[in-house]
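Q: Structure for this?
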Amino acid sequence: MSPSVDTAVTPEEIELIREKALFVREETVRLISIAKVGHYASAFSCAEIFAALYYSVLNLKRGEPNWPDRDRFLMGKGHAAVGYFPLLADWGFFPKELLDGYTRVGNPLGDHPDMKNVPGADFSSGSLGHNLSVGLGMALAGRVLGKDYNTYVLLGDGEQQEGQVWEAAISAAHHKANRLIAIVDRNGYSLDGAVDDVMGIEPLAEKWRTFGWETHEVDGHDIPALLGLLKRVANDSERQTPVCIIAHTVKGKGIGFMEKEIGWHLGWLADEDEKAVMAELRANR
Amino acid sequence: MSTTKTQLQPESWSYTDTLDKAPSFAIISQTLADLADEGHPVVVGTADLKYSNGLFRFEERHPDKFFQFGISEQNMISAAAGMASTGLKPHVATFASFMALLACEQIRTDIAYTMMPVRLIGTHTGIAFGFYGTSHHATEDLAIMRSIADLNVVAPADGPQFAAALRAVVDLEEPIYFRIGRGRDPEVYGSNATFELGKAIVHEAGTDITLIATGSMVYPTLEAAKALRAEGLSVGVIDMHTIKPLDAEAILRAAANTKLIMTVEEHNVLGGLGGAVAEVLSENGTPVPLHRHGIKDTFVIVGPPTHLYAHYGLDIDGIAAEAKSFIAKFTK
Ligand SMILES: Cc1ncc(C[n+]2csc(CCOP(=O)(O)OP(=O)(O)O)c2C)c(N)n1
Ligand SMILES: [Mg+2]
C-alpha cells in the first residue's frame, strides 16, 4: 500500500454511508411499490455495501457515466438492482424522474441492470454467474489500456454455486488480475432456502484463498469495518492477486419480519405494511 | 407481518404472501408424484427454483426422489443425463432461459445425442417474466431446441395438458423439451386435457383463416378467434402443442381448406412454430399465404407481463388485430 493514500475512515463518512444505506432501503421500498413485486431482502442485505462503494470508494465523475477512467461496478446478483438504481440517479447519470416509472412499459429500469438502457450500469446481468468473468475482462482491459481503475463485482452467496464463478476465479488468479475485487454478499439465503441447505458452499473463504485470491471476511453492515477494508483493498498497489471480500450480512436487514421469513427474497408489501416498514427502517437506522 | 396482499396481482403477476409461485403447476407435481407411486422410475431435479416451479410439492411426497442442485443448471442437466443412463426418468426444471440457452450444449451433447429419456422443463417461457428483462425472457428456446436432432419439443397450453403429456410419454425412451408458462396461465382444457405426442388438436376448421398457436398463445388465440367469428369470419384454430415432431398433416389439411394461415407464438418469429409451419407449407408447394405472429426478431423491452403482451400484440385483442390486418392485406 502506498503510504500517501488516505485509508482512514472519518465519523463524517460513517454518518454519510449510514444515511445513504437508509436511502437505498427507502428507495427500494418505494420503487417496489411501483413494480408491485421485487427483491426487497436481496437489496437490503447489500445496502451498506452499495452505499460504501458509491459514496466513499468508487472513483466516479458526477453526470459522466461513461468516463473511461471510472471504477467499474458490476451486479453479479443483478436482481438487487432496485437498490442501486437510485444511487446511479443520485450521481446524475440519469434523471431521477425515471425512478418513478420503474418497470413500467417504456422505462429502462427493470429488475436487473441493463447497460444498453441504463446510464451508469457498467454491464447487464440477470443470469447469475456471468459477471465475475465480465469483470475479469474489464480488469484485464485496464491493464492493456494502461488505465488506473478497479473493477468490483458483487456476487450472491447462492450465485457461488454457478460453475462459471469458479472458472472466473481460476482465470483471474492465473492472470494476476489484481484490480479485480469480488464482494460476496453472504446473506445465507437464496430462493429455495438457506444456501447451506440448498447446496452448501462452505468453507467459502478457504475456497477463495485456495483459488489464489486475497480473501477477507467482514461484517457487511458494520460500516467502519466494511469501509476501512474496502479502502485498504482499493488502494493497495502492491498486491499481485485478485481480492475476494466475503461480507457477512443478513438477508432483509433492517426489517424484522424480512430477516426472519425466507419468502421475502421476492415480494410486495401492501400499503399499510409499507408505512410500517418505512418507520421501522428509520427507527433501525 | 401478515397483512401483505394475498392474491394474484394482475399487473406484476405476483403472489406475495406465499412461497408457492405457480399454483397452476400443482397438477404437474401431483402427476409426477402419482407416476412415482405407480412404480415409474421418476426422479425430479430443480435448480434453486422449487417454489417458482411448484416442484416442492413433489419433494413433499417423494423426498428421496427429489434432487436440489442449487444454482447450477448445467450441472443439473448433465447429472440428469447420468441418472437417465441407469434407467431412471429424470424430470428437471428451471427457467426456460437457463434451460434452453444456458445449458444448451449439455442438452445437445449429453441428452439428445445420447438419447437419454430426460424431461427438460423450461418454465416462465417467452416474455412472461415481464420486467425481469432479457436475461429472463426466452424467445429463442423453440428455435434452439428444435434444431437439436432427436429432441422432442412440446409446448403445452396449460397445466392439465402438461400433466396429460407427462403421463402420455412416461414410457418414451427419448428426450423431450417442455416449454411452459408461469403457472398462472388461464386453463384451456382443464380436467378434459388429453395429449398425443406429435398430434395437433384441431379446435375448429375455418375457411377465411386458420390460426395455429402453441403453448401460452392457445388461450388468447381461441378467444381472438371468437371475436373474429363475431365479425362474420370463418376462423380455424389449431393447438400445435408439439413443435417437434411437427404434425405436418394437420397443417396441410388446414391449408387445403383455408385462404390464409397465421401462426401465433410467444417466441421470435424466426425458427420457432412459424418457421416450422413455413417449412411444411413451402416444401409441399402450398399456395396459402402465411403470417408468423410473435416477437419480431427483437429483444423485448421491460414492462409488466400483461402490458407486454398487449405491447407485442400477443393478447386477445392484439392477435385479432394482427389477423385482421393480414386478412386485409390479401383481400382486395
Ligand atoms: C443462472 C440463473 N439461475 C437462476 C436464477 C434465478 N434466481 C434469481 S435470484 C436467485 C437466488 C439468488 O441467491 P443469492 O445469489 O444468494 O442472492 P441474494 O441472496 O443476494 O438475493 C435465483 C436462483 C438466475 N437469476 N440466474
Ligand atoms: Mg444469498
